[in-house]
Amino acid sequence: xxxxTLPYRYLERLVGxxxxxxxxxxxxxxxxxxxxxxxxxxxxxxxxxxxxxxxxGAARALRGFLGLEEGPVRYxxxxxxxxxxxxxxxxxxxxxxxxxxxxxLSLDEEAIVSLMGLQEALHWAVGRGRRxxxxxxxxxxxxxxxFRYLAxxxxxxxxxxxxxxxxxxxxxxxxxxxxxxxxxxVAEAPRFPLIVDAGDSVLSFPPIINGELTRVSTGTTDVLLxxxxxxxxxxxxxxxxxxxxxxEAGGRLETVEIDGVTTPLLAPSFREVSVGECSRLLGxxxxxxxxxxxxxxxxxxxxxxxxxxxxxxVPCYRADIMHDWDVFEDVAIAYGYERFPxxxxxTATTAxxxxxxxxxxxxxxxxxGLGYLETMPFVLTSDEVLFGRMRRELAPDVLRLLHPISEDxxxxxxxxxxxxxxxxxxxxxxxxxxxxxxxxxxxxxFVTGLGTAAVSCHGAADFSEAxxxxxxxxxxxxxxxxxxxxxxxxxxxxxxxxxxxxxxxVGVFGEVHPEVLGAFxxxxxxxxxxxxxxALL
Length: 537
Fold this sequence. Notes:
10-stranded mixed β-sheet
């Protein structure tokens, strides 16, 4: 979870209370204080609340929680007269753009640090390391509209942020620290995303780096915001949160026309919730007026519409509200966690480590001892990753999501090896060797299993290495196994083997097939081991 730095002086100014009164109540706000320093406090917020990832956003919420204000903040916008055009050539590279203009800002160093911190926190929580969203803030006084978001030749030159010399965008991927960190996001694109103004001056090379020309400073009063990405909803969320944070900092919001479409749209959404369901889930006896009052403290609009119903106005920046239960969580926070009675459990139990937990611990100890680094791949993935790229037949018992948000997250993982190959793909520009493993749950239909996999990628990875790792892992787990020939198409014929325990196949090892390597964009051989731990349970 992200840790956000809240400067005391800036926080006191935005909230309107002394630091002691604020910090005392912070833990009851659903947050955790990491450390207190002389001039700031570091607070850990849940990753599902990106609207709190800045001093401005946290202060807005705290003013309600501490009883200084209630109800939603409504943000007014006016047309800026500024237009953006998007190059159709970006459709397969980085197609989505959000933008806004914020005028009348008076930024001191603390406000700039807060906004830059919000930018980086959103890159992590919403942008998934800038893959889904990358954000740029620009001094509007130094550029001229209209603006263009285009697919540029890779040799275009400009001066990147924190540098004094111009360089080509390809050079930035090699020489600039941000370029080296995020090169994998664009390195294989035939052209690079670029934002320029009417005079062809460069604002930004998303998702890598802004231009030095548009650096935001304490003298900046008018800001142009851009959010580019590969996920429309994530881009809209980041744009909304940044706009409202800048408005809290004293700015006036103005809309931008992107190919004729007005952005941002800061209208709230509405839902009706059941008071009875809220009371049952929280274990409280609440009425509609009380629930509405508690929600107004959490900066919602809320009015009773009957004895059991409350109409809720959800602010535009609350991207975490996806279910009525998300609303009920805010009711609990406003009610006060400290007011919930502590009730001892009526059932006495003796704790004992589960067999599956012990097995996972032993796997971790064995593979870490062999020099492998543990990873935790997502549970949701796609048919293409699980089967298509792995040259494996589509399994009939794959658990599919009814309404997936994207094709990349449409099925539950049936094994871990494909996801490790995908991680190698994400890290293919990092130094070698790379030795990764994962251990965790898999799903076949509605049955939860347990599996582990390990991969080793470097120039000398081969069958012998895979066999050695498989043998060491089985010995550490106390498995009397035999190795037989395998027919798994993910591995090279003649350089693959199957692990059999008690006459039951439990795993596979060997050298990954070149077609699989090519499908994941890997240039070096990979030795891999995959084990079905469910069979051992």
